Amino acid sequence: xxxxxxxxxxxxxxxxxxxxxxxxxxxxxxxxxxxxxxxxxxxxxxxxxxxxxxxxxxxxxxxxxxxxxxxxxxxxxxxxxxxxxxxxxxxxxxxxxxxxxxxxxxxxxxxxxxxxxxxxxxxxxxxxxxxxxxxxxxxxxxxxxxxxxxxxxxxxxxxxxxxxxxxxxxxxxxxxxxxxxxxxxxxxxxxxxxxxxxxxxxxxxxxxxxxxxxxxxxxxxxxxxxxxxxxxxxxxxxxxxxxxxxxxxxxxxxxxxxxxxxxxxxxxxxxxxxxxxxxxxxxxxxxxxxxxxxxxxxxxxxxxxxxxxxxxxxxxxxx
Amino acid sequence: xxxxxxxxxxxxxxxxxxxxxxxxxxxxxxxxxxxxxxxxxxxxxxxxxxxxxxxxxxxx
Lengths: 319, 60
Description:
heterodimer; A: 11 strands; about 40% helix; B: 3 helices
């Protein structure tokens, strides 16, 4: 994104991703993440989804999570092709080491000295902690997982399943299911989350009203024609000396999903109206969940926000 | 263990394209040993909460 592409305080003027946006600037292809942003604050939605800017620490968390997902996807693909657990794990560790090596500079990525300068728990998302998390994850869940990965009709394991479907004439929803599993004779979506926070029942409560989990519940019945009993969240607490794993389930009834669909349509249409009102800020959201990363932008005079955005932010990682 | 830490740190600092299969195995064994120690400490037992839907909560 170049600064000339957009004006920050007004109508979108420049290039928008045609895969997601209509020519009039309205987003038609929505992920749980962009929907979440639109519900939270239209100004934040504008910065993060429309302009696709992010802070360096947001990209660290996204990159770490994507690396874990890639390891999980590769693991099950290789196991489906007949490779042993040990061979697969060795391949994944080597692949992740290569993915996190800056080949141009000849140095490791996600190094602690860089990460410790970032806010929040970014300092925990080091390369060493990533490798440890992957090895521990497959030692914990590889061959001993009580949740058995479902097998698709083509013989492949049901992991990293992309989906996209029409919500109404103007709105499409998209996403990706980490894994579909069978647990206690029932089908579940299994979604992995990495966090720097301690995992407790309080941690899991947030998912009972979480947009992403509602979308996954809906997608499993709409796209895959196979309603699941619920969504399991496999949480990985990344700490300095260990990675702890916990699982919990969240559920949606038919009535809850219908309600969620109506709410989603409302929030999307509100987001479409937002440019006419200069992308209103929702100030009550500024300090929630550790604080919005754009608070520093919004706190500045409108005349200098564009310059501030151009210096302290970077292009967001596709999620 | 100190020697192991030095070996693993040196592996992390090296271009992974130069790693041998034995290097990768060493790294896996190192972290698996760390995990065993963590488990023995009693802090690392993974749990899964008993699945229960909101309808089941209501006895439906």
